[in-house]
Batch of 2 targets.
Target 1
Amino acid sequence: MNSASAKALRSGGDPPARDFAPESDDAIFDMMELFFFAYRDFVKDADRLLEKYKFGRAHHRVLHFVDRRPGLAIAALLDILKITKQSLNRVLKQLLDGGFVEAREGANDRRQRLLYTSPEGAALARELARLQSARFVRVLSGLSPDARRSATEFLLAMIDQDERASVRAHLLVAAAAPSAGEESPP
Amino acid sequence: MNSASAKALRSGGDPPARDFAPESDDAIFDMMELFFFAYRDFVKDADRLLEKYKFGRAHHRVLHFVDRRPGLAIAALLDILKITKQSLNRVLKQLLDGGFVEAREGANDRRQRLLYTSPEGAALARELARLQSARFVRVLSGLSPDARRSATEFLLAMIDQDERASVRAHLLVAAAAPSAGEESPP
DNA sequence: AAAATATGTCAATATAGCTGACATAACCCG
DNA sequence: CGGGTTATGTCAGCTATATTGACATATTTT
């Protein structure tokens, strides 16, 4: 049941045995905490603006991904967010009701409801993105191109291996998306 | 009230105008999403083990920071987590009841309850850390020392400027803590 | 026509956070 | 000493975000 590697636990008072990683268990622990703190601060950036609309972070995520990938189907959005459709539905309904997101019947498959931001939704999405990207702009402008590449590489590598392909695809689609409509084949 | 840079919004169907940042608004948007996906996957790592103890992520965070910084006072923990004492109390009580965390009266200030992990708590904390650090080990081992430094630098820079000092201090304390007892002066 | 798919919805539940109000004990200061 | 501040606990109620399970509807696929 217990730790496989917890040998000399600090049960008495001896220094914790940092011996299983070649050269930097400490560094790794530090990075884990940095990651926590960095994310904690990052998500906070948009909160004040969201409050004005009585929206939460869930709304933000939906709005963001719909804006980035116009014509996104419900199922695809669920897959990105990794939540259930019931969870999505509440926030999505509020976004639809508020006129920030629109759903159109799929052209090929009329069961689908493809999601698009309205002009107001797009404006809000981008304003939120601007708030959050300010942090990135500040950080990245202080890094050399090489360091930027390393940071990007680092983040990508942090993603589950079997997710990485679809994330990469997502980024490409988002970048390429002219104003797209149809989904690519499953 | 609207986005200052949202000129040619995709109201009709024209390509989104990615023109306001010198060379890489796209790159920044991509990084923001990578950050989201990376964190989403990162926090997931420990969940299965936590379930066995009927604990959630909130318990994990408390356990982690108490283990990393033995003798942590309640107020200091609240400051790290940025939550209210009422929120903390529920999970902390469960950790105390379960014998994973112990609270001792402060030596200098008897109002304080200084927190320590029990041997079981420490074992759990480290097993959880091991699960999560596995991801970091995998990622960092694929990066050059330079790239590692860049990634670390990136994460640190992502933290709020006025928090950075205290985070740095936290890391140092955690690294230095032998199995410590007393707090350093406030 | 039957089966599978995409989505919506109702209901109940859990977790993690919040505010506000109030209580207790211990410390600090004049 | 006595009053103010600090550290913490606790009660009560609220919100946001997620879950599972069951069932409904329309549409596409076979």
Note: The two ends of chain B are 43 Å apart (CA to CA).
Target 2
Amino acid sequence: MPKKRPSPKRRSGCPLNASVEILGDRWSLLIIRDMMLRGFRSYKEFLESYERIATNILADRLRKLEAHGIITTERNPSDGRKLIYSLTAKGIDLAPVLTEMVLWAAGHEDTANQELVRLIQKDKEQFLAAVRQRWAEQRIRSMANY
Amino acid sequence: MPKKRPSPKRRSGCPLNASVEILGDRWSLLIIRDMMLRGFRSYKEFLESYERIATNILADRLRKLEAHGIITTERNPSDGRKLIYSLTAKGIDLAPVLTEMVLWAAGHEDTANQELVRLIQKDKEQFLAAVRQRWAEQRIRSMANY
DNA sequence: TATTTTCACTTGCATTTCACAAGTTAGATA
DNA sequence: TATCTAACTTGTGAAATGCAAGTGAAAATA
């Protein structure tokens, strides 16, 4: 059941505007990419990702993503220092957005990671299904830790 | 022929990162929405759009979008004050990105404009084809002005 | 022709956000 | 007990943003 939170003080009711207000910055989607495509789940992994996000920005973005219901945070039961960040259903539903952004840049800009691009181009729906499947499996494995 | 410009000082070669560096702010995609979906073509129209962009920000974003080859600027031959902003092929290729962002927000946030959302949901490919068609027609009409 | 309007901006300034470096705290490890 | 690690927070300067007012060229109007 997708809960739709009322929008507090949005600039407009346009759905694109909502997306832009939530995701329209230089870091949020990269964090989501790291979780969705690379399986990153810890603060340290995000920090060490290639684009080098600053630690205060990372903390801020994780807070905001959680506030928006895109990720969840839980403590690792076997090591109380570690936090595990996971994508919610709302978060994994961003897969088509990321996918189209990858395809657009790959088609119009000089970019790397052509294996990923070709994989998406070959069969977009299958790629999205695989992403969702991995997410679902990781979820089950997480629950098994308790 | 899609020219791929070399990326000057990108944070990484990841295609998603390229998209985020070009489009990842609170206004660029709204300007593109106004051009793509509402047919806006002048500075004044963008300024008066519902979200109320500041004039200096608008000028800056139009400059950057043009520098990235997403829009073009031409002077209206019948009124030398007016400039006409148009989406390039690279710009109209953002339609799938906008579409997925609209669907995501519509599914998870409290948003308006449900007619548009339902139109997209009914047949996404047909919606995209219609957007492209309108763009192509507008292009031809523009050329006819000369 | 002179004056006013329109259009697409620019400029100045206060506020907010960002980037970088350093420091902090709770919990694990030796 | 001391050290280490993970996940932050804090401080500071730089850059981006938001708001109001002003500018200049071209067009419309008197």
Note: Residues 124-143 of chain B form the longest helix (20 residues).
